[in-house]
Write a structure and sequence with these properties.
4-stranded mixed beta sheet, single chain, elongated
């Protein structure tokens, strides 16, 4: 089964996969904003990262997977 964890952020989601009452995996979905150096985008980016940090601290002891759109430029 699965359980959706309530997150107060539209860019971060959290789902737990559960079997026999034990959490097998936490799947964290992240949609980071495109970084264009504007003040609004920087604030949105910082808020998203703070939320992601809170979710990661919530699941310190268990296995987790982070998936999503990171909107990052990869090094050449």
């Amino acid at each position: 089964t699965y359980k959706i964890i309530d997150i107060d952020n539209e860019r971060v989601s959290d789902i737990q996969l559960i079997s026999k009452g034990q959490v097998l995996m936490n799947i964290i979905g992240v949609y980071l904003p495109f970084y264009d150096e504007s003040v609004d985008q920087i604030e949105l980016y910082a808020e998203s990262l703070q939320c992601l940090q809170s979710v990661l601290e919530l699941h310190k002891g268990g296995p987790l997977m982070i998936v999503g759109d990171m909107n990052a430029v990869l090094p050449q």
